[in-house]
Amino acid sequence: MDRGPLKLRAEDAEDLAVMAAVLQDARAPLKEMVFDPEARRFLVALRRYRRECLPDPCAACDGLTETSCVLGFLDIEAVRHRGLDLGQPDKELSLLTIATEPGASCLVHIRLVFAGGAEIRLESDCIRAWLEDFGEPRPAPTPPAHPVLEEDS
């Protein structure tokens, strides 16, 4: 069932959890992420799986489609990162989740957590985010997959 393009807004951690579920396994190269400190805005263009269009989202991924979308955050004071190789802007990152936690000085930290241990942390005094699909859906070339980190024994 095709439900058309998604448009979501987030103003609290619960709203952001919905976006995280929609964006699980979405992919984006580093070059598709930008922070504009003057506008206090962080944007990322992703390709997300359209699981909401599957007859049974818990079933196998046969017939899975993907679409392009933009994820934006407003009122961002600072952006920090770890585990990113800035020398490889074309390397595709796979988003695992979006998490929030309290920060110092009444700030909230919004963490974009990627497979392989990479993370981007957005610092803000509030949650103001949006997600919007754009472009035509297309068949997903591969099902969601990402490397699993092995724990030290």
Tell me about this structure.
- This protein has one helix spanning 13-23, and strands at residues 7-10, 27-29, 33-36, 41-49, 65-74, 76-82, 92-102, 108-114, 119-124, 129-139.
- By secondary structure, it is mostly beta strands.
- The chain has one domain.
- It has a 5-stranded antiparallel β-sheet, with helices on one face. The chain has a 5-stranded antiparallel β-sheet with strand order 2-7-8-9-6.
- A hairpin with a 4-residue loop joins β8 and β9.
- The model has no long low-confidence stretch (mean pLDDT 87).
What structural class is derived from the secondary structure elements?
A: mainly beta
Shape: globular
Largest sheet composition = 5 strands, antiparallel
Strand-residue fraction? over 45%
**Average pLDDT:** 87
Low-confidence stretches: none
Strand tally is: 10
The residue fraction in helices comes out at under 10%
Terminal Cα separation, in Å?
Answer: 45 Å
So what's the oligomer here? single chain
- Rg over CA atoms: 16 Å
What's the arrangement of strands in the largest beta sheet? 1-10-5-4-3
H-E order: EHEEEEEEEEE
Query: Please, how many domains?
Result: 1
Tally of individual helices: 1
Keywords:
five-stranded antiparallel β-sheet, mainly beta, 153 residues, 47% strand, globular, 1 helix
